[in-house]
Backbone:
């Protein structure tokens, strides 16, 4: 189980993965919008998406969990 | 003198025991933890493994204290003279006794008089409690080591190779060095050990978590370069020194010019969409000599890249925003990282190249509470007061105080160049239109009409901040196609070799730290 966390405060712009999807280390799972920039959030592990904790349009703070990989 | 030539005279016998270091069991412990004996480290570090040593008989009359646990030596690295002090962790765990401290102070004095770099090879448990009165509080006690470090800062390069612990007061040796190389798994820095933390504040924590090399190189920023082995640490220290002069009165030596790495052209690397991320490392690769990048703090505050490199053989310090990480936005740690790096390069006459693609400093409650203004001021002050040749390149966007921090035109860069993709403004078009027309936008009820209005205003704004307009107004000095950027930077630095800046008299600035 690994929580993929937000690297900075911003709005969830796009969720790139679905529950049950296999992801590789370095793969973008969520794109945030912050400071008018697209901020890709990458998985730091290989695994399967077991939970998505945010919705597009949500505000997230730095270090908030976005996606759970197991 | 080598061990083999020793005969049975008193001198030779004594030297033999000095060269052997501590007891056999401690040598075995070194091997178990992939550590090298201090004299083997020195052989690897110096050209041809040769060095001259003073004070080696320190405490030779005492049992079990060869060289009093520290070797102080002068030799050459890459043909240049350097001074070195190296703890011997087989002798009382590398702890500092009275003579240890005196030897360290003396080699610092030698480095100051000779105006040559000083390397600290640290592997020490800290103060030797039995010697504390003589080694801790006095005029030539351990405090003097740190006082000397501060005194020497910016005069000669000071480099720390951390092979083991640097505990309590000893942790300030790396803190006062220009750069700290840490060996993963063995190196650590901490004021209070995990055992002390548990006793005093009730925290249960591992050494690695609290003061390990990975933590310091990626989170605290106390470490600069993380390596896997001691051999690698020594190679990196030798390579680092190739970018530096012997002292602050000299200039770095030139290397052999090399072409950049083969890859996508700069114009293809930078996306048209101002908001889309790209990898600044790839862009740097097209500007510098292949294989010449020596990155400092690679794992820390990765939204800004700081590193030494060569362009047509000449040493430069590069400060570049990384749009791939956190959008290249400046944070507290990135400002801190850049400030130290700029100070380092300026101290040793290494010209600075700024590659800007920055949306600005981070905003929001969290960073304001942490004092982002104060930390941002630190970076701006370092950049502003640097007097080495400075070239700023606006690669893509440079918004708000981000433009300032990345050496915008007001901060006397010797030249401010824009790529045709550059965009300089107080803020980006979306934010600006929002800020100016928020009420108006809200009043338009029809969605299509609203979108059209926003688009039109954004276009007008784009024209207002058009880079050719800024060039026409002499705000920037030149617009250059990406293909010609490397050559242009190289030529301009060449033209700036004799740059001099005369500042008004003062003792020193009041630093915003």
Residues:
């Amino acid at each position: 189980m690994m929580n993929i966390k937000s690297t900075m405060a911003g709005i969830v712009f796009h969720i790139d993965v679905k529950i049950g999807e296999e992801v590789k280390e370095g793969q973008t799972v969520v794109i945030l919008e912050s400071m008018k920039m697209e901020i890709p959030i990458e998985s730091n592990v290989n695994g399967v998406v077991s939970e998505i904790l945010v919705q597009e349009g949500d505000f997230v703070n730095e270090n908030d969990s976005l996606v759970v990989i197991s | 003198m080598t061990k083999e030539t020793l005969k049975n005279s008193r001198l030779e016998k004594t030297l033999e025991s000095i060269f052997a270091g501590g007891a056999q069991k401690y040598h075995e412990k070194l091997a178990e933890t992939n550590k090298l004996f201090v004299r083997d480290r020195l052989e690897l570090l110096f050209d041809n493994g040769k060095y001259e040593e003073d004070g080696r008989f320190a405490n030779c009359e005492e049992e079990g204290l060869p060289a009093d646990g520290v070797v102080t030596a002068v030799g050459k690295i890459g043909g240049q003279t350097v001074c070195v002090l190296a703890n011997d962790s087989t002798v009382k765990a590398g702890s500092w006794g009275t003579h240890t401290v005196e030897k360290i102070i003396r080699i610092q004095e030698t480095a100051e008089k000779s105006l040559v770099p000083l390397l600290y090879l640290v592997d020490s448990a800290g103060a030797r409690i039995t010697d504390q009165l003589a080694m801790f509080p006095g005029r030539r006690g351990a405090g003097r080591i740190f006082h000397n470090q501060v005194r020497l800062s910016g005069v000669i390069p000071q480099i720390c190779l951390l092979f083991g612990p640097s505990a309590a007061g000893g942790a300030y040796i790396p803190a006062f060095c220009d750069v700290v190389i840490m060996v993963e798994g063995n190196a650590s820095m901490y004021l209070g050990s995990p055992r002390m933390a548990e006793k005093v504040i009730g925290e249960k924590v591992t050494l690695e978590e609290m003061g390990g090399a990975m933590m310091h190189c990626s989170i605290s920023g106390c470490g600069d370069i993380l390596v896997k082995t001691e051999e690698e640490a020594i190679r990196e220290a030798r390579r680092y020194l190739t970018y530096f002069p012997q002292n602050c009165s000299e200039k770095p030596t030139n290397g052999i010019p090399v072409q950049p790495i083969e890859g996508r052209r700069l114009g293809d690397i930078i996306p048209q969409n101002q908001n889309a991320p790209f990898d600044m490392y790839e862009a740097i690769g097209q500007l510098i000599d292949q294989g010449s990048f020596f990155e400092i703090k690679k794992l820390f505050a990765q939204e800004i890249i700081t590193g030494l490199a060569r362009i047509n053989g000449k040493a430069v310090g590069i400060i570049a925003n990384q749009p791939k990480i956190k959008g290249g936005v400046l944070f507290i740690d990135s400002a801190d990282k850049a400030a130290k790096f700029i100070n380092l390069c300026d101290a040793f006459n290494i010209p600075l190249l700024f590659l800007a693609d920055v949306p600005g400093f981070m905003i929001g409650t969290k960073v304001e509470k942490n004092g982002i203004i104060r930390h941002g001021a630190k970076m701006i002050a370092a950049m502003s007061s640097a007097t080495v040749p400075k070239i700023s390149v606006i690669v893509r966007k440079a918004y708000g105080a981000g433009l300032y921090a990345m050496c915008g035109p007001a901060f006397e860069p010797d030249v401010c160049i824009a790529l045709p993709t550059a965009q300089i403004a107080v803020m980006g078009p979306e934010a600006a239109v929002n800020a100016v027309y928020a009420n108006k936008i809200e009043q338009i009820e029809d969605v299509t009409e609203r979108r059209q209005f926003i688009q039109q205003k954004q276009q007008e704004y784009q024209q207002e901040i058009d880079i050719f307009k800024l060039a026409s107004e002499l705000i920037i000095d030149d617009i250059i196609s990406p293909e010609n950027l490397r050559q242009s930077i190289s030529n301009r630095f060449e033209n700036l070799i004799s740059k001099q800046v005369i500042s008004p008299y003062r003792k020193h600035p009041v630093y915003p730290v």
User: Anything to note?
Assistant: The first strand of chain B starts at residue 51 and ends at 54. Chain B has a mean pLDDT of 95.
